[in-house]
Amino acid sequence: MTSREGMTLKQKVHEIQMTNNYFAEYTGIKVKQFRETLLQHMSNVKKSVAERTHHKRLYNRRVNKRQMLKQESKVDLGKLLDAGLVVIESSEAK
């Protein structure tokens, strides 16, 4: 593409029109239609990423909650076992 600095407005408009025509011939669609389709796809990708992020956060919360419950149950079991040992030891001492 040429430098547009020394071009008149008419020359710039003509170059843009020619570029659009070449694009339409090559791709089979007009630049405006391509742009609109591209923006729509980008919007869909953005929505999909946001949805995926949301689901990932929900999943991570569930996993973290499960891990916390598992740790709490281990601690509770440990306390019960310690209490059981105390009861066993005190009953053996009698």
Describe this entry's structure for a reader.
With 94 residues, this protein is mainly alpha-helical. The protein has one domain (9-93). 87% of the residues lie in helices and 0% in strands. The protein contains 2 helices and no strands. The protein has helices at 9-27, 31-93. The longest helix has 63 residues, at 31-93. It is rod-shaped. 0% of the residues are buried.
Chain-wise SSE layout:
Blueprint: H1 9-27, H2 31-93
User: What structural class is derived from the secondary structure elements?
Assistant: mainly alpha
The quaternary state of the protein chains shown equals single chain
The tally of strands reads: 0
Write down the Rg: 35 Å
Features:
rod-shaped; mainly alpha; 87% helix
What would a concise description of this structure say?
Helices cover 87% and strands 0% of the residues.
